[in-house]
Amino acid sequence: MNRVGIGFDVHRFAPDRRLIIGGIEIPHHLGLDGHSDADVALHAITDAILGAAGMGDIGEHFPPDDDQWRDADSGELLQRALQIIGPGWKLVNVDLVIMAEAPKIGPHRSEMRERIGTLLGVSPDSINVKATTTERLGFVGREEGIAAMATASLMAEVSNVT
Fold first, then answer.
1. pTM of the model as a whole
2. What does 114-131 look like in DSSP terms, one character per residue?
3. What is the pLDDT of residues 95-131, one digit of tens each?
4. 162 in a domain, yes or no?
5. Which of these, 33, 45, 87, 127, has the minimum number of CB atoms within 10 Å of its CB?
6. Helix (H) or strand (E) holding 7
7. Contact 109, 74 (CB under 8 A)
8. Given this model, what pLDDT does residue 65 score?
9. Helices (H), 7-161
């Protein structure tokens, strides 16, 4: 049995924060505001994986009003999501799109694929990272923040997974 999940996340820009996207730090004059490190890409992937397994969402498992997740590394949250879905699932692939006017994502795409693959325990060939602008429309176009959407495909490894 195969299952697919979709994840979406958005964070506004904020001063005096590091910009973490796809598990890597990207040089930029602004970071993203959030309870954790605000990595929109890893948050979207986490939601996609949880969704594919029918296990809720990131806010349910890592609530923003819980201080233990304050400034948390989103890579750790992603790895915990894999533990939540359990050993009966094998990640087949992740497809990620990052929506940003700035900074440019293209120069960081390979490093993101490597990092995400490492976090998920899969080959970077199973991770696709795309980037787009919104043609200067909306909050992304006004450079107020960044959004990300991901799909994740899981395959049941044992017959007792439903």
1. 0.95
2. HHHHHHHTS-GGGEEEEE
3. 999 999 999 999 999 999 999 999 999 999 999 999 9
4. no
5. 87
6. strand 2-14
7. no
8. 87
9. 40-52, 58-61, 74-85, 109-120, 138-141
For residue 5, pLDDT over 80 is answered with yes
CB 135 within 8 A of CB 43: no
- C-beta separation of 56 from 35 below 8 A: no
Separation of CA 19 from chain center:
14
Distances (CA, A) of 70 to 34, 35, 77, 101: 9, 5, 12, 27
Going by pLDDT thresholds of 50, 70 and 90, the confidence category of residue 135 is very high
What length does the chain have? Answer: 162
110/128 Cα distance (integer angstroms): 9
Q: Note whether residue 161 is domain-resident.
A: no
> Which two structure tokens, joined as six digits, stand for 150?
């991901």
Count how many domains the chain has. 1
Nearest to 147 by CA among 30, 46, 24, 21: 21
The domain that holds 15 is classified in CATH as: 3.30.1330.50
